[in-house]
TrEMBL record:
SUPFAM superfamilies: P-loop containing nucleoside triphosphate hydrolases. PANTHER family: ABC TRANSPORTER I FAMILY MEMBER 6, CHLOROPLASTIC. It holds the Pfam family ABC_tran. It comes from the Bacteria. NCBIfam families: sufC. Signal peptide: none annotated. Keywords: ATP-binding, Nucleotide-binding. CDD domains: ABC_FeS_Assembly. This is Fe-S cluster assembly ATPase SufC. PROSITE patterns: ABC_TRANSPORTER_1 (PS00211), ABC_TRANSPORTER_2 (PS50893). Residues 4-246 form the ABC transporter domain. Gene3D superfamilies: P-loop containing nucleotide triphosphate hydrolases.
Length: 252
């Protein structure tokens, strides 16, 4: 069964410590949400987990099914089943969305186990329909000229096709109107399974009206300072973050 463990993770950007010891454990079937004010290190956590070169991990341990994730290159992490939807997906000129998707899927499946072109197209078209994406997006260059909402839907399309074990979604809800939010949430919910765990990073509780998390963690100043169930997200929506700071004596 899927088991993802982050222990005492510390990371710096340009010498400045941003993550100050993050602990989180995700089992297959679980959805964890991380909420927190802007600038607390949520995106840094996502990037550090994926191995972004800008972020230096200085301490801690990350394992997926017992394997050392921090030891892996970015592509090895993807192959091991880690998926990250970034807050700001990058554009790749000259590579079409469908070419990108097919090579990502084949990299994940491994040599000798590549998906056939016909099967890939059938799967991609099916998922695009589910996400109410215009079929022409298959042939456009990756994310080039996509609107914010189209990029987010495209990230979910990648997630659905890659069949990862651990999914990290960084502010997948930002910039989405209510219809796009519902479509993205349906995509996530359709991928819920006992074999898969989710880490959903969000600034707003709104997304969690559509995707019910099992656990909610509050992140502040590079640490998870409070954990609870969905009711914690509701309280944050109602009362903001100040009460958490007061309760814990955090001064900023
Ligand atoms: P969040 O996602 O919670 O809003 P971030 O992880 O994006 O927070 O940022 C955490 C802190 O790290 C902030 O103080 C931010 O200014 C800083 N930071 C993030 N990315 C960079 C970067 N590329 N270079 C320098 N500082 C950065
Ligand atoms: Mg931010
Ligand atoms: Mg962020």
């Amino acid at each position: 069964a899927t088991h993802f463990v982050v222990e005492g993770l510390k990371a710096t950007i340009e010498g400045k410590e941003i993550l100050k010891g993050i602990n989180i454990e995700i089992k297959g079937g679980e959805i964890h949400a991380i909420m927190g004010p802007n600038g607390t290190g949520k995106s840094t956590l996502a990037s550090a987990l994926m191995g972004h070169p800008k972020y230096e991990v200085t301490d801690g341990k990350v394992t997926l099914d017992g394997e050392d994730v921090l030891d892996m290159e970015v592509d090895e992490r993807a192959r091991a089943g880690l998926f990250l939807a970034m807050q700001y997906p990058s554009e790749i000129a000259g590579v079409t969305n469908s070419d990108f998707l097919r090579s990502a899927i084949n990299a994940r499946r491994g040599e000798g186990n590549e998906v056939s072109l016909i099967k890939f197209i059938r799967q991609m078209e099916g998922k695009m329909k589910e996400l109410e994406m215009n079929p022409e997006f298959a042939h456009r260059y990756l994310n080039e000229g996509f609107s914010g909402g189209e990029k987010k839907r495209n990230e979910i399309l990648q997630m659905m096709l890659l069949d990862p074990k651990i999914v990290v979604l960084d502010e997948i809800d930002s910039g989405l109107d209510i219809d796009a939010l519902r479509i993205v949430a349906n995509g996530v919910n359709s991928m819920r399974s006992e074999e898969r765990g989710f880490l959903i990073i969000t600034h707003y509780q709104r997304l969690l009206n559509y995707i019910t998390p099992d656990y909610v963690h509050v992140m502040m100043q590079g640490r998870i300072v409070k954990s609870g169930g969905p009711e914690l997200a509701e309280r944050l929506e109602r009362d903001g973050y100040d009460w958490v700071k007061e309760e814990l004596g955090i001064v900023d």
